[in-house]
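Weekly sync notes, structure subgroup
Attendees: PM, AL, DS (notes)

Item 1: joint prediction request from the bench team. They want all two components modeled as one assembly rather than separately. Inputs as received:
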Amino acid sequence: MQVKGSKEIRAGVLDSGLCTGCGACVSLCPYYATHKGKTVMHFSCTRDEGRCHAHCPRAEVNLDRISTQIFGEEYSAEPFGSYISIYAARAGDKAGLGSFQTAGTVSALMKFSMEKGYIDSAVLTKNDKGFGVPVIIDDPSGIEKASGSRYSVSPTVKGVNEAIISGRRKIGAVSTPCQTLAVAQLRGNPLKQENFTDPIAFSIGLFCTWALTASDFTALLKSMGDISTIRRLDIPPPPASVMEIETGNKSYIIPLDDIRKLIPEACSYCHDMTAEFADISVGVYEGKTKQNIAIIRTEKGRKIFEEAVTAGYLVTEKIPEEAIAPLAAASMNKKKRGLAKLAEADLINSEAGHTVIRLEKSTLDSIFKGGASCC
Amino acid sequence: MLLSNNEGKEFLLMGNQAIARGALEAGVSVAAGYPGTPSSEIIENLASVAPDADLYVEWSVNEKVSLEVAAAGSFAGLRSLCVMKQNGVNVASDFLLHLVLSGTRGGMVLIPCDDPGAISSVNEGESRYFARLMEIPLLEPGDFQEAKDMTKWAFELSEELGNVVMLRSVTRLSHASGNVKLGALNRTKPTAEFNFSGNLLDAKTGPVITAPVPFRHTQQQAKLKKAAALFETSPFNRYEGPEKPELLIITSSACYLYSREALRVLDAEKRAGILKLGTTWPLPPELLKKHLAAAEKVLIVEEVLPFLEENIKIFAMDSIDSIGKIKFFGKNDGTLPSVNEMNPDHVIKAISSILSIPYTGMPEEYEKSGQILSFTKSPNRELTFCPGCPHRASYWSINRALTLNGENGFVCGDIGCYTMAILPAGFGTIKTAHSMGSGTGVASGFGKLKSFGMKQPVVSVCGDSTFFHAGMPALVNAVHNNSDMLLVILDNSGTAMTGFQPHPGIPSGAAGNELPGLDIENICRSIGAKTFTADPFNIAATEKKVLDIIENETGARVLIMKQPCALSPEKKGKKKYNVSVDSSICKGTDCGCNRLCTRVFRCPGLVWDNAAGKAVIDEIICAGCGVCADICPSGAIKRSEVVL
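Output from the run, pasted for the record:
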């Protein structure tokens, strides 16, 4: 895996419309910053190699290498990537959480793992004047405050970086697929630093179809009224094609077509709907507002998940085949679309200049043939 | 020395000093100008003696007004002087156009000092064409003695003709020095009185007006003809060389010295002759005819544009019957370069090629390798801001705020120390730079392009002196036309780039006299701009403020960044902080910031110790502003307040 520097990040990622605003490059050095969801670079660094390039999910990502690092096997052509099991889940009574947007699985898992000492701190994403910003939580009572879905680009990995810099070493991170990919690269010590220990104790990934350009979305919300009182933002499952917004005293409906106009170009290159490199990936269970789908991927994920169930923090159910199929189809479509767009732009296994992805050609071919089984 | 009689004694004088002395010997009473390199010392020298010399000296708000102020002195019967750099004449030219029609009374001399090669300018304009365009006489001193003598004579000439006389200098005369024998200093005390009750058409006693224009214009041209006749016998036009030279060199100004040197180097003084012209407009016809008739080859050496060359060629065509055909060499045929400063090497090369004299100055290989070595081996010595300069801090914040905003915003600048932000010194922040105050005018225009789909935030920068000079009308324009732009006034309490002269915002004048200082903040509010202030040395707060104003405010806005220049009297030599680098914290070359301190911020007081591989403060150069302590990402730079 070739590690390069900020010059390549500027030319290949920032100036090429590929940056997802994940924040992986921010807070490592004085040169990167994030403002209203956009990652920017102050001045030029000129170093040949840097963690910015090594961790960036849009630069030299070797899917086989990361997959081997986390799962002990090369990248899977399956719709969900590598995993152990899939359940329907929701927060249980013992989690002691109030009511929230969907089923509360993520908050329950975070609370459980912190109360049981699997993690000492959590990096979550909270709402700050309409923008998603990372927040470091060291106490279980703080977890609920950062719950709820964010639809706009948030530089969450900046929070992971700051947690690590502050000396925290048992970090639980909740992140979208691109953010999760950055965290996965970070965990692999790509620059081979001495005395490195993996600071991430638990990684939860979130399903994501796309995100929204933060400043455009905030502007849209502001045009609807006082956004400081937004209590709920939700995109109900099809056949509805709207976004529902609930503020302190009003409800708004925005057609999804208007929302889709705010999707950044960078999202169209994404091939990962289910955050394939997390310990557990959690997302919407279509048709069941009070349940999540949870994909258990690693042994550590399974251990924590099963203990949480036993302790009453989570309630789970088996999912019938017919329920998994739509998720698998959607996931596979995104994977194909993203990889096709990358391939068209010569950003897969490219030898000339910048490349985003490296993986075995045979795996790539079988993805495009699209005959992968679903579970 | 300037006010001492010392008639006949020789002194080593800078060209500008010689000019000042010449004006004093002529009995000048009023001197006005605007600071501009290489002219500023003329006013400064006069200002230094003004209290003892019955002399009024003023740094005017801009060159146009300075010419008007000087003209008033002339209208009131006093001898008056107006001084500026080359592009100052452009600023003053509208008034000049009318002044030369109305005529003058007390002798009035306009002295532009040009900067060929733009050593200290962002243009290498030519002021000489204004003399021809405005139809007034033009004088060019060829050495330091002439700088004094011709200035004195210029006042007499102006009175004899009743019009402005232009005396043009260049950097290598104004800022170089030579022996000058002083003349008599007759300081009289004339009474100022403006007579206007005479006949409308009487230039000496009637109102000073330009109407009726054709009538005045005819008078103006008659004055010029009179000057041409006077120039035939002027001692400032001299010929040296053989009676029938193989090559006639016609030259003026500092190029006279280069031509003499070239002939000596080539040992060609017997083959070529030099006609040095001190009166270069109008051309003295008989004198020219005499010398042109005696030559078949003529080389014209001047800078910057082929002013003399073209005028002489026209004259030669008109006089072709009496002088015969001539082969001209100069700029138009490429014998001499058309841009940049003239120097003896160029002249040597020209003459050696015309006269077929073999000459090798520097071998080409040597010159090439010298250039390569100077790029690769010598330390980088770019132009930069002084240690403790508030502009470095201001641009740090402006640049970072625009980057954070992420909408490809940009800064329009103009003239001053702050122009250096086109360079790495100011992080390349300025994206357009033209004449005084033009940044704000251009920004006023950019700020109206939203209806054409332009989304980029528009910012302009302007110094405090520049604001009074030309920025104010542009700001008025922006406010009145609802332009969406932010003017950042970099107020460092003086006209810094040219030598820290005062301006209308400063409570003192050219002679150090107390005067009311105008308040920029109040003026901006009165104009109607949303006005904010910030201390550029507080970089975190200033960056936040700039970002906030760009993102959350609209219309024409002003942010005044107020912090005195490091070389201002209140700051020079006094440190607010003792600054040092804690080498136990500084990670040196191992710091992932890759020397943000000394590679990007680059204050001269913050130095990279190559041996130690760490940053260190040079206590002698450091001005003690303390800003760098906020730059280091590791917090290795420490500042502690100096307790007096």
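Discussion: The domain at 238-354 of chain B is CATH 3.40.50.920 (Rossmann fold).
Action: AL to compare against the crosslinking data before next sync.
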